[in-house]
Amino acid sequence: MSRLIVVSNRVSAPTDPAAGSAGGLAMALSAALRKYDGLWFGWSGETCETFTGALKTEDRAGVTVALVDLEAQDVDEYYNGYANKTLWPLFHHRVDLTAYERSYGEGYERVNRRFAEVLRPLIQPDDLIWIHDYHMIPMARELRRLGVKNRIGFFLHTPWPVRQLLVTLPFHRRLVESLFDYDLIGFHTAEWRDLLEDYVLHEVGGERLADGRVEAFGRAPQLGVFPIGIDVEGFLAARDSVLGRRTYDRMAASAAFRSMLVGVDRLDYSKGLEERLLGYEQFLQDNPDRRGQVFLLQVTPLSRDDVDTYQDIRARLDALAGRINGAFADMDWQPIRYLNRTYRRDQLAGMYRAARVGLVTPLRDGMNLVAKEFVAAQDPEDPGVLVLSRFAGAAAELGDALIVNPYAREEMSDALRRALAMPREERIARWQGLMAAVRASDVGLWRDRYVAALRGD
Fold first, then answer.
1. Which of 11, 116, 237, 395 could serve as a FRET partner for 150 with CA atoms 20 to 30 Å apart?
2. What ranges do the domains of the chain cover?
3. Which pTM was predicted?
4. Nearest to 73, CA basis, from 42, 104, 52, 100
């Protein structure tokens, strides 16, 4: 049986599979690597004075991990620069925040070349290679230049941008051409696959073949749709764990007969956090009878705090939450509880279960697994309501949620009022449809479907 080699910017294989903080994606990939006697390769997160390509290998709960250090300049240009200041905002349609600097692009290609050179000696002839996310789009091209003939797959965890915005990227054709060195390119949704096809057909003169594939640059990789999910059984176990139940009890007691709304999002401009708070403010203005009866728990762990854009959004959110609390709070009630810290998966499950409404309202997002976690955490006999942005990848699967346009604060206000007033029978019916969709896209099924397609089964 061929081995599986997983390549990602950061390696998240858990040291303890039983840990409640381990993410579903890490658990699923780790299980696959144990099954296929595989290897997980990526950046160590550490810097070195001079890049040597020296590998650090270790065993993490039966998974072999291979890590390499990068120079500080590499991190600045490849990771902080091209990945987070160029591709991330562009792929999320924030051209106004996209930084186009030649040194960033040079660093991005240099690091991908270095990764390929370090990985090449570890590759055996029958290995399957699965590369993840926008940090490593050119990896297959660099491996092919080194003579690697193995089947190589790529999965994009973010949206793909529309052609009219992608062409604002200098050397956009070169970036897309490097994708065509993969055998399989995977997306969360058919929309994002179709956007890549649109670019290829209209920008570089590609052709659609009789079998439905698109050919360009002399190659015709398979383009597939593989909506990622959560580890359903693992999340249910976390919800029902001692800490999960304890967190639920704490939050239920803290609500004190009030209805809790919950949002859990990494600090990022793509998550629509400002728009969410403004929509909630509109709800409080539109529904004075609800004041004192509802509160929003917004959990927002900090991320990329060394990037100016993220410092700016943090300051704006702090000010906005303070303004809303100042305008509406009473002596025994605060409308927003705003927390900048990280919680374990079992703690989050308890929070979700205690909430009457889950708010997942990004402006543009990948799948957004918080939506699926919220659904899985609910009490089947008395579930909460999911309010979901139409611009999240999950909206393609979770049609029984209340789907909203997060840019329209009145629409957000109406959805909150409807969610809080929704009869139990309707909540149960909607939850049953949502939970069926969550189970159908379990992360283990996602992993197995992708690997089978990469193998050509």
1. 11
2. 4-229+443-455, 232-440
3. 0.94
4. 104
Q: Residues 6 or more apart from 242 whose CB is under 8 A from it?
A: none
Distances from the Cα of 299 to the Cα of 261, 264, 302, 341, angstroms: 11, 5, 10, 7
Q: Does domain 4-229+443-455 have CATH number 3.40.50.2000?
A: yes
CA distance between the termini of the chain: 13
The residues assigned a catalytic role are: 157, 365
- CA of residue 240 relative to chain centroid, distance: 24
User: If we measure between CA atoms, which residue out of 225, 224, 219, 227 comes closest to residue 200?
Assistant: 219
- Measured CA to CA, the distance from residue 75 to residue 83 in angstroms comes to 10
Integer Cα distance of 42 and 280 in angstroms: 41
The per-residue pLDDT for range 184-233, each reduced to its tens digit, is 999 999 999 999 999 999 999 999 999 999 999 999 999 999 999 999 99
Give helix 232-239 / helix 24-35 axis angle, nearest 10°. 130
Beta strands in 39-179 (DSSP E): 39-48, 55-60, 63-71, 128-132, 152-155
In CATH terms, the fold of domain 232-440 is: Rossmann fold (3.40.50)
Show the beta-strand stretches assigned E in 83-238. Answer: 128-132, 152-155, 184-187, 207-208, 214-215, 222-225
Same fold, 4-229+443-455 and 232-440: yes
CA-based max dimension of the chain: 69
